[in-house]
Specification:
532 residues, alpha/beta, TIM Barrel, 8-stranded parallel beta sheet, 3-stranded mixed beta sheet, 48% helix, isocitrate lyase activity, metal-binding, Isocitrate_lyase
Length: 532
């Protein structure tokens, strides 16, 4: 027996046990509402999606072609439309996730107004967006199932048993829009206790995967800004443990932690690490400090600080900001140490924030990490902060030059220019951009590819195009030709925006609750009928 029919029978038994008081309750309607609300809490979602993500990680270990992807979404509607589109085009949500970007929360969701990515926004807005995203995805489930239920009723009314059976199968095998979310907790918004408290809120909202970075919480900068300051390993590991405790406390035993290192672009530290013996983790962190080795107290000025490192007395360089510098050229070594240390102390995945999308650079670091942790895997930011066109054209230019190919027709500094768009070099660069994710998954250990803030940019671009035409000579045609007509022809579900907002579901419920007395919105005068 199908789950749907089993739920109808169970509801009928329960209703019958209540006597005449529940006579007006229809068991099939009750079963429908239950089916449309598969996930009762955010913790149900976190437990369900954690299992999906763990299975995907194992699958990737067997075959790197099975990498996963996501787009950053700054509103529940954006996340909903993304997953509806994925189901429409690919008939499956398999290996497609959501990403919650702290950058977009700061820029678009703070009550202070738009803010830079520096952890100044309300930390509760992060958990709030997770809850909002899953509210919209659950509504997408309910809407899709509602359409199937109405089609089931129509097949029954027409006496079409074959169609009824086909629709019944779709109901029983319905694939939810609920998918894993990788959620950005920045640097934890405070000390390890603050990190634990926020992680709990995020998990309760539905997050199965939390990404945390090794920057100083109150000095946090966007990964693509200057002035980043890292913390000693033990400070960061305390926060990783705090997130793990939050998962365990809430019964999400297989929750996923992504440890992000910003060391490649961070040349500063706020603290000198505690060290108890030569070669321990604190000593390794301090060994990267820039400074001068001294021989005696005569080399120390008032206020100078001196530590023992590498068996010598080191006077670290301290800036007016009271921050300490790392030696130039130590970024990759620090990244590798960060990553190995995080994986050995409870992290599941890594995030290396780089300054350019270069498969070779990423692979060089990952290969060193895998010498110690063979199954190390990355989440990688296919960032809009990179100039992808220029980066890849320059990579091709450099490869051609190294191979002795004539590049005299190209000016490396001007390769972004439109005049190069149709050239052999530009076409080869575009081909490399197209295969970047597959190449990096295969060669550089990238399990998950995401774009942090693509929908920020698409919203701006589409609004600019509409404003230019609607307020210009095109007038209403600017909307009709480039928005509504395209929605209709591409089968964009929200062209019926009343339906997308829940109007038909509301009508269903009114019928359940009020029977023939229900006042419905979807009658013949509803203008949504113009869209078929």
């Amino acid at each position: 027996m199908s789950t749907y029919k089993s739920d109808i029978d169970a509801a009928a038994t329960l209703i019958g046990s209540q006597g005449s008081a529940w006579n007006a309750i229809n068991p099939e309607y009750a079963a429908r509402m239950k089916a449309q609300n598969k996930f009762k809490t955010g913790l149900d979602i976190a437990r369900y999606t954690a299992k999906i993500m763990r299975a995907d990680m194992e699958r990737y270990d067997q075959d790197p072609a099975q990498y996963t992807q996501s787009l950053g979404c700054w509103h529940g509607f954006i996340g909903q439309q993304k997953m509806i589109s994925i189901k429409k085009h690919f008939n499956s949500t398999d290996r497609r996730y959501l990403y919650l970007s702290g950058w977009m929360v700061a820029a678009l969701r703070s009550e202070f107004g738009p803010l830079p990515d520096q952890s100044m926004h309300e930390k509760t807005s992060v958990a709030g967006l997770i809850e909002e995203l899953y509210t919209f995805l659950r509504q997408a489930d309910a809407r899709e199932l509602g359409g199937l239920f109405r089609a089931l009723d129509a097949a029954r009314e027409a006496g079409d048993s074959a169609e009824e059976a086909a629709i019944q199968s779709k109901i029983d095998n319905h694939q939810t829009h609920i998918v894993p979310i990788i959620a950005d907790i920045d640097a934890g918004f405070g000390n390890e206790e603050a990190t634990y408290l926020l992680a709990k809120k995020m998990i309760e909202a539905g997050a199965c995967c939390i990404q945390i970075e090794n920057q100083v919480s109150d000095e946090k900068q966007c990964g693509h800004q200057d002035g980043k300051v890292t913390v000693p390993h033990e400070d960061f590991l305390a926060k990783i443990r705090a997130v793990r405790y939050a998962f365990l406390e809430l019964g999400v035993d297989d929750g996923v932690i992504v440890a992000r290192t910003d060391s490649l672009g961070a040349g500063l530290t706020k603290q000198i690490a505690i060290t108890e013996q030569p070669g321990d983790l604190g000593d390794q962190y301090n060994s990267f400090l820039d400074g001068d080795y001294i021989d005696s107290a005569d080399d120390i000025a008032n206020g100078d600080l001196v530590i023992k490192a590498n068996g010598k007395l080191l006077k670290p360089k301290r800036l007016r900001s009271n921050l300490f510098q790392f030696r130039k050229g130590t970024g990759e070594d620090r990244v590798v140490l960060d990553c190995i240390t995080s994986l050995q102390n409870g992290a599941d995945l890594l995030w290396i924030e780089t300054e350019k999308p270069h498969v070779g650079q990423i692979a060089a670091m990952v290969n060193r990490i895998r010498e110690v942790v063979p199954n190390a895997k990355l989440v990688y930011n296919n960032s809009p902060s990179f100039n992808w066109t220029l980066n890849f054209r320059q990579q091709v230019f450099d490869a051609w030059s190294e191979a002795g190919k004539d590049v005299s027709d190209y000016d490396r500094a001007r390769l972004m220019s439109e005049e190069y768009d149709a050239t052999e070099l530009a076409l080869e660069a575009d081909a490399k951009i197209q295969t970047f994710q597959a190449d990096a998954a295969r060669e550089a250990g990238i399990f998950h590819h995401l774009i942090t803030l693509p929908t920020y940019h698409t919203a701006a671009l589409s609004t600019d195009n509409l404003a230019k035409e609607y307020f210009g000579e095109q007038g209403m045609l600017g909307y009709v030709k480039n928005v509504q007509r395209q929605e209709i022809r591409q089968g964009i579900a929200c062209v019926k925006h009343q339906n997308m907002a829940g109007s038909d579901m509301g009508d269903d419920h009114k019928e359940y609750f009020s029977g023939d007395a229900a006042l419905k919105a979807a009658g013949k005068d509803n203008t949504m009928n113009q869209f078929g």
